[in-house]
Amino acid sequence: MGSINIIPIGSGSTGNCIYIEIEDHHFLVDMGIGMRKVRDTLNGHGRDLAGIEAIFLTHSHSDHIKAAQAIANNTSCPVYGDASHMYNIRNIKADRSIIDAYADTDINGLTVRMFYVPHDFVKTCGYTFATKNRKVGFVTDCGLMSDTILEELSGSDVVIIESNHDVEMLKNGPYPKDLQRRILSKYGHLSNDDCAATIARLYETGTRNFILAHISLNNNTRDVAYETTAKVMKGKEISLYTCPEEGRDLLTY
Question: Which residue, 142, 129, 130, is CA-closest to 59?
Answer without folding.
Answer: 142
